[in-house]
From TrEMBL:
Job description of the protein: Catalyzes the reversible adenylation of nicotinate mononucleotide (NaMN) to nicotinic acid adenine dinucleotide (NaAD).
EC number: 2.7.7.18
Catalytic activity: nicotinate beta-D-ribonucleotide + ATP + H(+) = deamido-NAD(+) + diphosphate
CDD domains: NMNAT
Primary enzyme class: transferase
Keyword Zinc part of the UniProt annotation: no
Pathway linked to the protein: Cofactor biosynthesis; NAD(+) biosynthesis; deamido-NAD(+) from nicotinate D-ribonucleotide: step 1/1
PANTHER family (alphabetical): NICOTINATE-NUCLEOTIDE ADENYLYLTRANSFERASE-RELATED, PHOSPHOPANTETHEINE ADENYLYLTRANSFERASE
Protein name (database record): Probable nicotinate-nucleotide adenylyltransferase
Domain Cytidyltransferase-like: 1-160
Length: 189
């Protein structure tokens, strides 16, 4: 599951859990982006903070793990590199790339869709109220899943912290404490 995870929240975790169940996945690997090219115009928290929050949020679930591949590669993150590296690490696995339906249509528009869909099956998850856009791809290459998750976004979580509003129960407890400890999102961005 790819994402910025700035911060990771319960929407991401419910989405991962739901897709793992529906698609009978053995494991969900959360892959925080390096420098997200779609978001390079905005300030994004340091990769190390986003990585650690993702580890904290997923640590108690034996089915969840976190990969540093996009962070350690350096430079901007392109999904094609993520998938090539994951494929090299997991030769015999069936790979499923999970991301938001919004991000999915961008990824498949900007990159070589034929190579992407040869590397993984794509699953676009959407939160309540977001329309399931058809990315216009070969049938069978992409699945869209509406996750019965909460209407939580990282943007809202950051805004709440900046305003001094609580994010308890929107993000895992350890992530609330990490945000506080590192004083993340304090300044209006
Ligand atoms: P931001 O508000 O900064 O864009 P985000 O909440 O969308 O953050 P990302 O890190 O961009 O979080 O999330 C990775 C993917 O997970 C995105 O493509 C997004 O659409 C999807 N996602 C985010 N929140 C939810 C949710 N509540 N339910 C289902 N999918 C979600
Ligand atoms: Mg987003």
């Amino acid at each position: 599951m790819g994402g910025t995870f700035d911060p990771i929240h319960h929407g991401h975790l419910v989405a991962a859990s739901e897709v793992a169940s529906q698609f009978h996945l053995d494991e969900v690997v959360f892959v925080p982006t390096g420098q997200p090219w779609q978001k390079s115009h905005k300030l994004v928290s340091p990769a190390e903070d986003r990585y650690l929050m993702t580890v904290i949020a997923t640590a108690s679930n034996p089915q969840f793990s976190v990969s540093r591949i996009d962070i350690d590669r350096g430079g901007k993150t392109y999904t094609i590199d993520t998938l090539r590296d994951l494929r090299a690490e997991h030769r015999d696995a069936d790979l499923f790339f999970i991301t938001g339906a919004d991000a999915l249509s961008q990824i498949l528009t900007w990159h070589d869709a034929a190579e992407l869909v040869s590397l993984a099956h794509f699953i676009g998850v959407t939160r309540p109220g977001h329309v399931l856009a058809d990315p216009g791809l070969p049938a069978g290459a992409v699945s869209l899943v509406e996750v019965p998750a909460l209407a939580i976004s990282s943007t809202d979580c950051r805004a709440r912290v900046a305003q001094g509003d609580p994010v308890w129960y929107l993000v895992p407890d350890g992530v609330v404490r990490y945000i506080d400890k590192k004083q993340l999102y304090r300044n209006d961005r």
